[in-house]
Design brief:
4% strand; mainly alpha
């Protein structure tokens, strides 16, 4: 039984009458916060989708000639060579890699919410650069800047939502990441297809700046992640944030689990070592409180130099309370009481818990998103859709890519409904298994025909992808990795995702030129291997506290 933790200065809570916050249901506050954060993710999909179709609208593949008119100071089209356009498109992923690489450090230094606010300033700058571009270099620089913003958002948005979402609804809120990417892809492509003349394309490529302005204005009104605030030793703020997110619930057990997810170190003089003994019972902390203040409350001094918690209803120190409680000793400086593990320490197993197996699972799931061949399906400039349909109509491939994105929305909504009922493993296995079958059908169609079978398999493949393999990897990281290594894990996984995006963008055209029919045989092998790895190694995390994974 967990000890009760109260904060009577914020809420007068009777813990015997209120339900455990770990069983918290739907919350409008968490939903609106998630939707607000999702605007950063929509910008990722929009930035990818808008150049998927608008090449002929944005660029003039020749020096400016007499036929190119100008609107004020901005040309209707920008002169690009083929190689310069390829660089401009691909540099978004390079920026994404660099942004993901620093996302963990930024979110740990200034907080998840504040990192998103600052990052939206970067996204706004990139949007302005693209919208006002007059040369190829100018446009490419804007793509690079907005790519960095996309990389930071890919790491921080997942961490923030994962840390504020209730346990029973974690999968539901986590699934908004992929939903936002698909919405951004869909509407970015539609907007690009309708920017048919003049400088209308400038509004389209700069539109993510509108999302950024909304978030800059509204995100500061949302609470910071309680787990980040605990890591930063802002105990009062963490308590207030948790009570705001779980209004009407008893937060005692969730508070204790948040503390347990921290990496505690014992400080002896100038040496730092990991605490290897059993953590002290909360009752021991309560004994340090003056006798005239024995009400059920949390006592904190003004400078947060120590934290003590009073308890109610616990049994004795022999119970499991001792293993689930945390105390900062009076002689232990709070500023040095917790330790944030870096990427190298986590990969080498130099953390309180050996996380290497869980890290490997997260990395494999994240990389599989690119190795499954989705990029070869979606992007019409170099993809199986273009190869099949372009001979019949130049507009068929772009419209088919739009329809593929649109028909994937039912899959995501179905996943939203099932992810917290069927579990993560079931969705991953069904998704990867279905994609393997679809890759076989696409390959058979490319070898023997007909093209209609290939197109049907393409639709089914993307549908299966959005039923699990495209959704679960983004939020499962925060379900299996404790707070002390979460930023490091997110940084590594998101960075590898962007690296694989670059690698696939370079390798797919080469394979298509050499052995085009075998492309989806390769992707099918990767998805089949992913299916087996999930079956053997990936744990189920549905409704499972991180301390029990």
């Amino acid at each position: 039984m967990y000890p009760r933790v109260f904060a009577v200065d914020l809420h007068d809570v009777d813990g015997d009458r209120f339900q455990d916050s770990r069983q918290a249901g739907f919350s409008w506050y968490v939903l609106t916060t998630t939707l607000l954060v999702s605007l950063s993710v929509i910008s990722i999909g929009w930035s990818f989708g808008v150049v998927n179709i608008s090449k002929s609208i944005i660029c003039q593949i020749s020096p400016l000639g007499p036929g190119n008119t100008h609107s004020g100071e901005f040309p209707n089209r920008i002169p690009f060579s083929n190689s310069a356009w390829t660089i401009a498109v691909g540099i978004l992923a390079v920026g994404g890699f660099l942004g993901a690489l620093v996302s963990g450090a930024i979110s740990d230094s200034i907080g998840r919410r504040n990192a998103l606010v600052v990052n939206n300033g970067l996204c706004l700058a990139g949007s302005v650069l693209m919208g006002t571009a007059t040369t190829a270099v100018h446009f490419t620089l804007g793509r690079f800047v907005i790519g960095i913003a996309c990389g930071v958002a890919s790491g921080v948005a997942n961490t923030y939502v994962g840390e504020i979402a209730p346990l029973k609804w974690h999968g539901f809120y986590g699934s908004f990441f992929q939903l936002s990417i698909v919405i951004g892809l869909l509407f970015g492509q539609l907007a690009a297809m309708h920017a048919t003349g003049g400088t209308g394309w400038r509004i389209v490529v700069a539109f993510p700046g509108v999302f950024s302005l909304i978030q800059i204005a509204l995100l500061p009104l949302r609470v910071e992640s309680p787990r980040y605030l605990l890591k930063a030793h802002h105990i009062n703020e963490a308590r207030h944030a948790l009570l705001t997110l779980r209004r009407g619930y008893d937060v005692a057990a969730e508070w204790q689990e948040s503390l347990l997810s921290l990496d505690v170190v014992d400080i002896n003089a100038s040496n730092v070592r990991y605490h290897s003994d059993q953590w002290s019972a909360t009752a021991a902390a309560a004994s340090a409180v003056p006798a005239n203040d024995q009400a059920d409350a949390t006592a904190l001094d003004k400078n947060d130099s120590k934290m003590t918690m009073k308890t109610k209803g616990h049994k004795t120190a022999d119970d499991n309370v001792a293993a689930s409680s945390l105390t900062f000793a009076e002689n232990m400086p709070v500023e040095r009481a917790t330790h944030v593990s870096g990427v190298w320490q986590t990969l080498c197993g130099r953390t309180r818990d050996d996380l290497r197996h869980l890290m490997a699972c997260c990395i494999v799931l994240m990389v599989l998103q690119q190795l499954s061949g989705i990029s070869a399906i979606l992007f019409s400039d170099s993809g199986v859709v273009r190869d099949i349909l372009d001979p019949f109509s130049p507009l068929s491939a772009p419209w088919t890519c739009v329809v593929v994105c649109g028909t994937s929305l039912p899959a995501i909504f179905l996943c939203l409904a099932c992810v917290d009922r069927l579990g993560r493993r079931a969705l991953l296995l069904g998704s990867l298994g279905g994609m393997s079958v679809c890759c076989v059908l696409i390959s058979a169609g490319l070898f023997y025909g007909p093209n209609s079978m290939v197109m049907a398999a393409v639709f089914l493949c993307y549908f299966a992808f959005n039923m699990g393999a495209g959704i679960v990897p983004w939020f499962i990281i925060s379900e299996v990795i404790p707070s002390y290594s979460l930023s490091a894990a997110t940084t590594l996984c998101c960075s590898l995702y962007w690296v694989m995006s670059i690698a696939i963008g370079l390798m797919v055209p080469l394979i298509e030129n050499i052995v085009p029919q075998w492309l989806f045989v390769i992707f099918g092998c990767f998805t089949l291997a992913g299916f087996l790895l999930v079956m053997l190694f990936v744990p189920e995390t549905m409704n499972c506290p991180i301390t029990e994974v």
